[in-house]
Specification:
Two copies of one chain form a homodimer. Chain A has about 280 residues and is an alpha+beta fold. Chain A has seven helices and ten strands. The longest helix of chain A is centred in the N-terminal third of the chain and has 13 residues.
Chain lengths: ~280, ~280
C-alpha cells in the first residue's frame, strides 16, 4: 500500500500519507486554492512545508474555502518520502509555527493510513456562520469572524425556514454552477441560535457545493428580515439553476469548523463511493 | 441630585450621569488613558462622543487598562446636559458605531443614578488571561487575545500556587509602584484552567494595582514551567516593594471582562468607602 508506482526517493523506502489539521483567519487570504500573486492558504502552507522539508509538497484539502472564509478544523493531506517524514515529522508542528504567518496554524500533523484522502474520504463538513444585529456592531475581539448585520433579524423565523431545507435535495438554486457538477447534497443540519445580538447558523452536509453555505444563510436572512416567508428558501429547491433572488452573505462570517472521516478500515470504501459520485467537487 | 453646582447649559435642565459599556481589541491601542499623538480608547471614545453630541465629553473609567490590553466588559461614565441626552441618547449606540473604528465598540449607553461612579462605585474587577503552550501557537482567530507560550506549563502547579494568593494582602511585590498609593488588595479569585493547549487564568479583586494581573500570571508561569515551587508567589507577599524576580507577561493575553457594581441605593455608600481608602488608583 506504499504507492508502488511512485519513484522511491533517496533516503526513503516509499511514501507516507500525512494528514494535516489546519486553522486560519481568512481575512487577509484569498481562499484555500493556490493562485499566482495572491496569498492563499495552500500557497503559504505548501511553501512553508517545502522550506522546512526541502522537498516539493502538494496538498489535497477537504474544503476549498473561498477568499475571506476562516477555518478552525480544515483537513489536508500530502505524501512525503519516508525518510523525510522520519526526520522531520516529530518537530514539524513547531517548525511550521516558526515559518508560517500567525493567521495560519497547523495544530496537528500525523501519519495517516494510505487510503486516507482529505477530500474523498470525508463523510461530512461542518460550518458555522456568525452575524450580529446588535446596533453596536461585532464584538471587537471577534470582528474577524462575525459579520455586522445592518437590520434586526428574527432568529425564530430563520430556524423555521432552516428546518424545511434538511435532507437530500438538489441545491442548484444555492450553488454557483460548475460545468457538469452535481448539485445534489444531503443537508444534515441547519440550526439557528441567538445569544444576545449574535445569531449563529450551524450547517452540516456530506459536502457543500460552491457558495452553498453563504447562499443558504443569505436566504435565511431574507426570512429573518421579514422580506420572505419561512417557506420561501425550501420552495427554491425546485429550481434547476442558481437563483439571483438568493443573497450571498459576506465571507468573513463563515468558518469551517470540522470535517468527519470514517474509521480507518472504512476509508477505502468511502473514497470509492465519493469518487464514483464525483461529477462534483465536494468541498 | 442633579449636580446643582454645575452651570445649566442652554436647552437642558442640568446634567445626566451616563454609563457606557465599552469593548475593545487593544492590539493597536495605547491603553485606555488619553495621550497626545497616540490612539487610546479614551481619546477615540471622547472624540467620537463629542463629534456625535457636539459637546465636550470627559470620561471616567473603571479600569485604566495598559497598552495592548483588551476589554469585553469595561465601564465608563460621563455627564451630559439633559437636552443633549434627550436628543441623542436613543440612537447613540448606533451613531457611535458609525464613527468609531471597529476595534472599539460601545454595546450599551444608559442613564445611571447620579451617585453612579464607574471608578469609585465599583465593587470588583474581573480579568481573564489567555496563553497557549501548544507548539502550533495561538489559534489564528484568537491570536489577538491569546499569547503563545514558548515552553510547556503545568496548569495544576499554577492552580496550586494561585490558591495560596487569595485574600487580602499587600501585593507590593506584584505592583508597579505609584507615589503614596496603597498596594493592599483583596484577591477574590485566581483560577487556572486548561483546555487542550489553552491555559486560562481568571483573576478577580476589589481592584488591581498597576500591572498586578500580569505580574500574578507571570509568577504563576514561573511555577508552571517548574522554575519555582508553588509556594513561591505567596512567599513574595511579605515584600514591601516590587520584585524584579516576577516576570510581567505580555499585554495581549489580558482582557477586562466584567466590573461589578452595587444596587442603585448603595452606590453613594460604596463611593464614600472607596474614596476614603483611595490613596491608590483602583483600576
Amino acid at each position: 500500500m506504499q504507492h508502488p508506482d511512485e519513484p522511491v526517493p533517496p533516503g526513503g523506502s516509499g511514501l507516507v500519507r500525512v494528514r494535516l489539521d489546519v486553522a486560519y483567519d481568512g481575512t487577509a487570504l484569498h481562499g484555500w486554492a493556490r493562485q499566482p500573486g495572491q496569498r492563499t492558504v495552500q500557497g503559504d502552507l505548501e511553501q512553508a512545508l517545502s522550506m522546512v522539508l526541502r522537498v516539493p509538497v502538494d496538498l489535497t484539502v477537504a474544503g476549498r474555502t473561498d477568499a475571506g472564509v476562516h477555518a478552525t478544523g480544515q483537513v489536508a493531506h500530502c505524501d512525503l518520502p519516508q525518510g523525510v517524514w522520519d526526520e522531520h515529522g516529530p518537530r514539524l508542528v513547531r517548525r511550521l509555527r516558526g515559518v508560517l504567518s500567525p493567521d495560519i496554524a497547523v495544530p496537528s500533523v500525523a501519519e495517516a493510513p494510505p487510503d486516507f484522502d482529505a477530500r474523498f474520504s470525508a463523510l461530512g463538513r461542518h460550518y458555522v456562520y456568525r452575524l450580529t444585529d446588535d446596533p453596536a456592531g461585532p464584538p471587537p475581539l471577534r470582528r474577524a469572524d462575525t459579520v455586522g448585520w445592518p437590520r434586526p433579524v428574527d432568529a425564530g423565523a430563520m430556524a423555521e425556514a432552516a428546518g424545511l431545507l434538511l435532507g437530500e435535495h438538489d441545491f442548484a438554486a444555492f450553488c454557483r454552477r460548475r460545468e457538469g457538477a452535481t448539485t445534489i447534497r444531503t443537508l444534515l443540519a441547519l440550526d439557528v441560535a441567538r445569544d444576545g445580538g449574535l445569531v449563529t447558523v450551524y450547517a452540516s452536509a456530506d459536502a457543500f457545493c460552491h457558495s452553498m453555505v453563504r447562499s443558504l444563510v443569505g436566504a435565511l436572512t431574507a426570512v429573518g428580515e421579514g422580506r420572505r416567508p419561512p417557506e420561501w428558501p425550501a420552495a427554491l429547491l425546485s429550481r434547476t439553476e442558481r437563483s439571483s433572488d438568493v443573497p450571498v452573505v459576506p465571507a468573513g462570517g463563515l468558518t469551517l469548523v470540522r470535517v468527519d472521516y470514517p474509521v480507518d478500515d472504512e476509508l477505502a470504501a468511502r473514497a470509492l463511493v465519493t469518487r464514483a459520485r464525483r461529477d462534483a467537487s465536494p468541498a
